[in-house]
Design brief:
The chain is α/β, with parallel strands linked by helices. Helix content is 49%, strand content 15%. β5 (128-130) and β6 (136-137) form a beta hairpin. The two termini are 13 Å apart.
């Protein structure tokens, strides 16, 4: 059975990191809509050229284009054994389109990494990012992180959108836009929610267990 996973979670929940980790451990591709959109633009595919024209006008790329790019990516041979989707779907319309794409394939396992808003605000306001490689760093003693990146030695700084008022607005928008999507998936036997406020290693362990449990349930259905 292919392991087809949709990873969900609010800003700062660690969704991208956990998606990378899980995909690498299971040897399946992690598919980020941002990555495959940039790839399609760079490759000059029909959908990529349409997306490039939209972005150059400063407009948002339509659901039609995003869905088409996701459909193409999921049709590649390396996704036959499964995949982890990060950043898609974002709306109920996209989720409905994904169900059509998945027709005839093994079921989707949907995991929501849940973290209370106050914990996210604390986490994001203390986050520092390497300007060279983009790696995140937690604050050190007294809330002061290292001046240079442990990975590449580049300079560390805080992002402009990691201010408290900006974070709270992002969380309000996420809750508003994502609640209908969570409601769309919540009743499915392959939906799981895990506590993302734990240390990253514990989240990874819980994620593994939740996905395996959902997959076993799908096989037994």
């Amino acid at each position: 059975m292919a392991l087809n996973v949709v990873m969900m979670g609010p800003p700062g929940a660690g969704k991208g990191t956990q998606a990378d980790r899980f995909a690498a451990g299971r040897q399946i591709p992690k598919i980020s809509t941002g990555d495959i959109l940039r790839e399609a633009v760079k490759a000059g595919t029909e959908l990529g050229l349409r997306a490039k024209a939209v972005m150059e006008r400063g407009d948002l790329v339509s659901d039609e284009i995003i869905i088409g790019i996701v459909r193409e990516r999921l049709g590649r041979p390396d996704a036959a054994r499964g995949f982890v989707l990060d950043g898609f779907p974002r709306t109920v319309a996209q989720a409905e389109a994904l169900d059509v794409i998945m027709s005839g394939r093994d079921p989707l396992v949907v995991v929501d990494i849940a973290v209370p808003d106050e914990a996210l605000v604390r986490r994001l306001t203390s986050r520092w990012v390497c300007r060279a490689c983009g790696a995140n760093a937690d604050p050190g003693q007294a809330g002061v992180p290292a001046a240079t990146c442990a990975r590449c030695g580049g300079p560390m700084s805080q992002r402009a959108d990691d201010r408290e008022e900006v974070i709270r607005e992002r969380l309000r928008v996420y809750a508003r836009d994502t609640r209908p999507l969570l409601d769309y998936y919540r009743a499915r036997p392959t939906f799981r929610a895990i506590d993302g406020a734990q240390p990253a290693d514990r989240v990874a362990t819980a994620l593994d267990a939740a996905i395996d449990d959902a997959a076993r349930g799908a096989r037994g259905a």
